[in-house]
Structure formats: structure tokens, C-alpha cells
Amino acid sequence: MYKERASRLPGAAVWTSTPSVPGDEGPGRVLPDGCMDLLWHDGRLLVAGPDTRAHAAGAASLWAGVRFHPGTAPALLGVPAHELRDRRVDLADLWPAAEVRRATARVHAADHPARGLEEVALALAASAAPPDPLLARLVTALDAGRPVAATADELGLGARQLHRRSLTAFGYGPKTLARVLRMRRALALARAGVPFAEAAARAGYADQPHLSREVRSLTGLALRQLVPPDTVS
Q1: 115 and 16 Cβ atoms separated by less than 8 Å
Q2: Which Pfam family name is an example for this entry (predicted)?
Q3: Are 107 and 120 in contact (CB under 8 A)?
Q4: Ramachandran area for residue 156 (φ above 0: left; ψ -120 to 50: alpha; else beta)
Q5: Distance between first and last Cα of the chain
Q6: How far is CA 223 from the centre of its chain?
């Protein structure tokens, strides 16, 4: 069973995933969302990099995580996003051993790993520079369906500069980020009961087949596999 709540860290979410019934295989596939996560599993701390495709979740046991708002994790974790693209990496491979031990101890001292991870994330944010407001504006514009070129102009960035900053912050270029965010918008509409064709149009796709191709490309699954049957019109 997957549960999520808003974190005390602005823009972040705290989540847990556990098997809900005997034989449950856990959270299934994690879809691209433009985010990075700090994870706890089986006593270990890991970092989930930004995905360009669906990721098969781990074993059927407790997982906990803090999902950072797109573009914010690299400054907190001290690693460019593109170095972790489509990867799950032990925090011990990224940080000095002493820092990993302190973070792990903080998680284990909490009454639940998810709350411990949130405390680690809050401590990281308290010692880091404030989030880059330009990155926040970029995410907001692309999530609203603004074209990449027009957004770059509005932000006063050239194409190469925007691409370079996007690689560091998001793990991929702005066009890929725009694709991921558009797919998430369409899926949210479809899961809310909006017919597929209307969801495609409202999210900015040419038509329903275009949406279906993008979902298949980014997740490896058919659109209908990602929308509960009782919501499909």
C-alpha cells in the first residue's frame, strides 16, 4: 500500500510503500515525474535519480522516501542530477562515510523511517542555499504547457544555457522535462474521469493516439494500464 503526504519541506512529499496483503508485490512501476527521492530500505539510505522511463520498484517490503520538487534535490544532495539519471544509488557512494552514518542514525532514531528521512531533508535544506527561483519558474511554465523556446526567452536564457542548467537540475534537457510533465498532467486528468481524448487535448497533445504513444514511450505501458478501469469513460 502506497501512502503520501506533504512534507514540512516546501514542495516535497513524504511517502511509504508496503505490501498491503499477502502476495502483494509492492508499489509496482514508478513513473517518470521530474523528481529525485531520498530513500530508505532495509536499513540503507539511497538516492533515486530522475527517470526517463518507468522504474520497476523493489522487493515487497517497506520502502520510505522523500520526493523533492523538480530541480531542488541536486543542491541538497551535492550531486548533479544527470549523474543519477535512471539510477538508484547508495548514499554511501555519494557522500563521505561519516555523513552517511550521521544521516542513517538520524533516520533510525525516529519513530518511523519516513519521519527520519524528512528530518534529514529538512536539515539539508537548512544548510543549503535557497532554491534557484529561475528553476522554479521553469518548472511552473513547462507544467502549465508553455513551449520550451518561449519559456527560455521569458527567463532570459539561451538554448544552450537552458539545456546545461536543466541537465544539472533535472537530469535531462527541458524538452524531456516538458514531455514528462505533460504526461503527468494527462494521466491526472484521465484518473479523475476525464475521457482520454479530452485529457489529451487539455494536456496539449495533438490527439488521443499521440498521448498513447507518449505514455508507451515514457512508461512502457499502455494508457489503459495506468488508469483504474472504473475511471475510464
Answers
A1: no
A2: DUF6597
A3: yes
A4: left
A5: 26
A6: 19
Q: How far is CA 19 from CA 85, 112, 161, in A?
A: 27, 16, 44
The SS3 of residue 16 is strand
Looking at residue 20, the DSSP 8-state letter turns out to be -
In this prediction, residue 115 has a pLDDT band, given cuts at 50, 70 and 90, of very high
pLDDT tens digits for range 159-200 = 999 999 999 999 999 999 999 999 999 999 999 999 999 999
User: Is residue 35 helix, strand or coil?
Assistant: coil
Residue found by looking up cell 533510525 in the block: 108
Delimiting residues of CATH 1.10.10.60 domain(s) in the chain = 133-231
Kindly report the backbone phi and psi dihedral angles of residue 176, in degrees, each rounded to the nearest multiple of 5, phi listed first: -65, -40
Q: For domain 133-231, is the CATH number 1.10.10.60? A: yes
Indicate the pTM of the whole model.
0.91
As beta bridge partners, residue 16 has: 3, 64
Give tens-digit pLDDT for 78-92. 999 999 999 999 999
Angle, to 10 degrees, between the axis of helix 113-127 and the axis of helix 97-109? 130
Q: How far is CA 207 from CA 115, 144, 204, in A?
A: 42, 18, 9
Residue 85 is given by DSSP the state T
- Mean pLDDT, range 152-161, rounded to an integer: 95
Q: Helix, strand, or coil here: 34?
A: coil
- φ/ψ of 21, rounded to 5, equals -140, 160
Does 143 score more than 90 pLDDT? yes
Amino acid (1-letter code) at residue 229: P
Q: Closest by alpha carbon to 31, among 197, 178, 215, 209?
A: 215
pLDDT for 50-65, tens place per residue? Answer: 999 998 776 568 999 9
